[in-house]
Amino acid sequence: MTRPGTAERVAGHGTSERGSELVLAGISKWFGRALAVDSVDLTVARREFVTVLGPSGCGKTTLLRMIGGFIEPDDGQIIIDGSDVRKVPVERRPTAMLFQGYSLWPHLSVARNIGFGLELRHWRRREIAARVAELLELVGLEGFGDRLPHELSGGQQQRVALVRALALDPRILLLDEPFSSLDLKLRLELRNAVRAIQRRVGTTTILVTHDQDEALELSDRVVVMSKGHIEQTGEPTEVYDRPRTRFVAEFIGSMNFLDGTLGPQGVTVGPSTRVPVTDEQLPVGHGSQSIGVRPEDVMIEGAGAGGAPADVESVTLRGHYKELVLRLGTVSLRAYAPKESVLQAGDSVSCRFRRVHQFPREPVTGLLGAARSGDGAGEGDLLDLAATSGEKLPGGRQ
Amino acid sequence: MPVHAEGGLVREERVGGRPELEVKRTGSFVTPVVSVVLFVAAVFFIVAPLGWLLVLSFAKGFNFPSLTPTSITLGWWRDVFNSPGLVHSVFLSVTIAPVVLVVSAVLCLPAAYAIGRSDFFGKRAVLLSIFSVNAFPRISLYVSMIPLLFLLNLMGTILGVVVVQLIGTLLFMTWIPATGFAAVPAELVEAARDAGATKFQVFRRVLLPLARPSITVAAVLAFLAAFDEAQGTFLVGAPNYITMPVQMYNLVLNYPVGVSAVFAVLLSIPSVLLLLSVRKVLFGAGTSSAFHLR
Of A73, A119, A117, which Cα lies nearest the Cα of A92? Predict the structure, then answer.
């Protein structure tokens, strides 16, 4: 497979280089014979909050560690604020990392943890004290400076670690799954704190996570990674509403997959079941496709209301809503209903789709480069470019 | 206060107000029983023999089977300090052992750092060879070393004594600090690098302080190993350099028991002082929590 040269790919990006804090161009990293990061291009604008989202082992942490300087890439350029930092050692990179564990030095007080980098840069003691006080205030830990890390709770330790990373005013803040060691309540709390602080301080931030909620909630832009390459880059709503590949569709939110054909009248599933689609901007199908429908886009009406006839197979209460499994001809579909819904298993209903997504049924290999470099491709391109991830895709969800 | 799960550590964060962490050890009755048993054992096996030595060093004589001496005397102590040979031994021991300790630290700590923090070809071989020094009777090792020491003109010299005492410290000063260095999580090192520390600054400001408990333990053991070394010191240093443990053999055979007792008490003093002085380093809050020792 031929790849376009680095320079072309950098130039091909929409964001102008002047406003960008970070440019990754053709970054690759091998671990032994495994390609951990496969020629990744990414441009991050100043003050932007970008989340790299993907399953474990997709190369997202490796990518982050290469930006931070902990791992040297085998190929490609890392440009921070206009200059290539590939040869700049970690201690001189203008980046700061917030690690997964709390990673506070247990023998140093909270204040000395935060002031560590400032001490190394020979700040005056009074200036360090002032900066530390300011940072502690930022995370609501005034008066905790003299404590040792083990005297703080997990959430407090991670907040200290956050401001320690900010102490040196880094150009780029790197967050390596920083919330995953916390329990749910603290995780949400700290997530909000990170977002609020990032907005206030304005540090360009890159977060790595496998948690889609985190990605959708926090980011200006989400980068979905799989098997070392970028599947899709876009704003959270864009990635959710217009997943470009089947991987993205499956990984973010939940999605029903049906084998069928899309025509002017709607989706034809199986031999004769036709489901009307209300979305006017219906993508035009080319023969048999894998059709994706989000459960919230399955509209349920009373039997005989004009939609496709379906039977309710099961109803599960999920708190503030109910999750239904519908049988539509030969396939099963997940759908949501309000928790007040009186539908029961065995009821007959009719259903329509609000909007649908299309993916080629068979993965098209060999188009990888073309598909990935097409940033901002419209839905019309979807059919040609989508699902070219090169992965072996599982069959439609039954 | 909520009811805690039985046993173990319970952490909770107070809701509202100033958040505070409480670490509470909730009781089972086993712990106090065990600690009383351990305390009694410590008194019986450690304090009692030392106390008995102390009594002997001041006792003029005994009327069997009474355990209390007939009268108290400072005579044995006076005898020891009036004998130039014995004073010289005390002087030699308290000067050579610290020198051995320093040399051992200079040689072994970099090795321990390398073993603990990096992988290199032959690492297992290095560890095993250090271990094997202690795995055989030491006296045969010393005897086989004597030709080499003659060759190097070290027989009968103080440098020879230092070299021979050094051997007994190698295992402690490499293996124990190596585990201490290895136990420092990689993230702590990376965080320091990220904050701008060079490799040397990481060593000095993060690795060394965090490995300090293990280095302290190793130093205590190494010092005592050197201080108590008699076989090799006798073979290499005699007759010019007779340290306290070597002198002990002579005393036990040729002097009244009171003199031996005085010497034994003198030999124990460094151990007691060392343990008392490093207690804080070993069990201080910051470092011990880092190693889950509490």
Answer: A117
Model pLDDT, residue B72: 85
What is the dihedral angle through the alpha carbons of B43, B45, B50, B53, rounded to the nearest 10 degrees? 130
State mean pLDDT over B131-137: 84
At residue B279, the pLDDT reads 77
Q: Is B99 on the interface with A (CB under 8 A)?
A: no
CB contact under 8 A, A150 and B285: yes
- pLDDT mean over B16-28: 44
Cβ atoms of A335 and A294 within 8 Å: the answer is no
Res. A95: pLDDT tops 50: yes
Instruction: Tell me how far apart the alpha carbons of residues A96 and A168 are, in angstroms, rounded to a whole number.
Output: 8
CA distance B131 to B115: 14
What share of residues in chain B are helix, strand, coil (percent, to 5)? 70, 5, 25
Q: Which residues of A touch B190 (CB under 8 A)?
A: 70, 90, 97, 99, 103
**Residue in A76, A96, A80, A98 with CA at minimum distance from that of residue A88:** A80
Find out if CATH 2.40.50.140 is the number for domain A255-361: yes
CB contact under 8 A, B187 and A101: yes
> Is the complex ipTM higher than 0.90?
no
Percent of chain B with pLDDT over 70: 85
Say which residue the tokens 């604020």 belong to.
A81
Residues 140-199 of A with CB under 8 A from B: 148, 150-153, 155-156, 161, 164-165, 167-168
Question: Strands A49-53 and A204-209, how do they pair?
Answer: parallel
> By percentage, how much of chain A surpasses pLDDT 70?
83
Please give the structure tokens belonging to residue A338.
């309000």
Res A270: pLDDT: 74
**Residue ranges per structural domain of chain B:** 83-290
- d(C-alpha A8, C-alpha A6), whole Å: 5
Cα–Cα distance list, A8 to A133, A359, B171 (Å): 47, 29, 59
Chain Cα centroid distance, residue A348: 38
In chain B, alpha helices (H): 30-42, 48-58, 75-82, 84-117, 123-135, 138-151, 158-182, 186-194, 199-202, 208-228, 231-237, 244-254, 257-283, 285-290
pLDDT for the residue numbered A386: 34
Residue of A nearest to B211 (CA): A107
CB A322 within 8 A of CB A275: no
CATH superfamily of A6-240: P-loop containing nucleotide triphosphate hydrolases (3.40.50.300)
Interface test with B, best of A71, A105, A141 (most B CBs within 10 A): A105
Strands A266-269 and A95-98: what pairing?
Answer: unpaired
What average pLDDT does this structure show over A257-278? 80
One-letter amino acid identity for B155?
M
The confidence score (pLDDT) of residue A329 equals 81
pLDDT in tens, A67-81: 999 999 999 999 998
Q: What is the CATH number of domain B83-290?
A: 1.10.3720.10
Predicted TM-score (pTM) of this structure: 0.74
Closest CA to B260 of B6, B11, B83, B32: B83
Q: How confident is the model at residue A25 (pLDDT cuts 50, 70, 90)?
A: very high
Residue B25, φ and ψ in degrees, nearest 5: -100, 110
